Amino acid sequence: MKIKHRAFLKWAGGKYTLSDTINKILPDGKRLIEPFVGAGSVFLNSDYDEYLLNDINADLINLYKIVQHTPVKFIEDASRLFNQSNNVAEAYYHLRKEFNSTSDTYYRSLLFLYMNRHGYNGLCRYNKSGGYNVPFGKYKKPYFPREELEYFSEKSAKAKFVCQGYRKIIDNAENNDVIYCDPPYVPLSTTASFTSYSGNGFGLDEQADLANAAEEIIKKVNTSVLISNHDTIWTRKIYEHANQIKSIQVARTISQKGGGRKKASELLALYHLPKVNHIKN
User: Fold this and answer.
1) Secondary structure of 24-82 in the HEC alphabet?
2) Sequence-ordered list of residues with C-beta below 8 angstroms from that of 229, at least 6 positions apart, any chain
3) Which is it for the CA torsion 162, 42, 122, 249, positive or negative?
4) What is the pLDDT of residues 115-143, one digit of tens each?
5) Residue 65 CB neighbour total at 10 angstroms
6) CA 70 to CA 74: how far, in whole Å?
7) 251 pairs with which residues across the strands?
């Protein structure tokens, strides 16, 4: 039985529970490209020779590079922040203030992990000034993900981490690459928009442009593109030129209380040249 690996970060919209389904759909190839890597669950649970992992969140990518290159030092330094004296609101807001005032990438990476595990529901959110503004989470004993960090560092030997726009990443795809896109999802209602997590808006224009980018790149190079999103009338319209679409039921994980986590339909839209034959059942 294949062991599944969890990301070391909590992440709204993380793909741990869907990673098996996604990996059954992703075609074979040499390199997996993820323009919206997030917590990296698909990366951690897939098997490609190489990975190009991108995210618009510079703090996230800096953290990944540090875990990749100096895992032992980072893990030991980060573990010291996970103590009872730091698990109170006063300490959390003090460290959050330090995060927002420092430009030291190593210290920011330590605090990013600390806030991810101590902040409300694993959210990652910035205000218009670029300040991290997730409130204190009030957890009894936040989990320190030592084993998850160690595995991420080991697996990242195959990866290159970059912080660029999704268009640039997709346009640089080469023959035998496979692209998986997990953008901020289209909101299911006017009060359910999650596009502010990265501090960079990803609106309806960007959603449509991503679909256009998928259509364009498969005509340029021998590649495939898989995009995930909410299953709505609008997403079915913008993905109407996908070769295959699969709809699945998933539990929404943005609610802090498990009882409030309702199921929603998601789409997996696969773009490829006609000779590629996929979505496995």
Assistant:
1) HHCCCCCEEEECCCCCCHHHHCCCCCEEEEECCCHHHHHHHHHHHHCHHHHHHHHHCCC
2) 183, 185, 186, 207, 235, 239, 266, 267, 269
3) positive
4) 999 999 989 999 999 999 999 999 999 99
5) 18
6) 6
7) 263
Which residues in 139-178 are b (16+ Cβ under 10 Å) and which e?
eeebebbeebbebbbebbeebebbeeebbebbeebeeebb
**159-162 and 31-34 strand pairing:** unpaired
Q: Quick one: which H or E segment has residue 270?
A: strand 263-271
Per-residue DSSP letter, 258: G
**Triad 100, 104, 110: Cα angle to 5°:** 75
Q: Are 163 and 55 in contact (CB under 8 A)?
A: yes
Helix (H, G, I), strand (E, B) or coil at 159: strand
| Band (260; pLDDT cuts 50, 70, 90) | low
Partnered with residue 271 across adjacent β-strands are 225
Residues 6+ positions from 71 with CB-CB distance below 8 Å: 149, 150, 153
Domains and CATH numbers, the chain: 19-57+163-271 (3.40.50.150), 65-147 (1.10.1020.10)
Total-model pTM: 0.90
Q: Quick: pLDDT tens for 225-240.
A: 999 999 999 999 999 9
Rounded-to-integer distance, Cα 245 and Cα 198, Å: 27
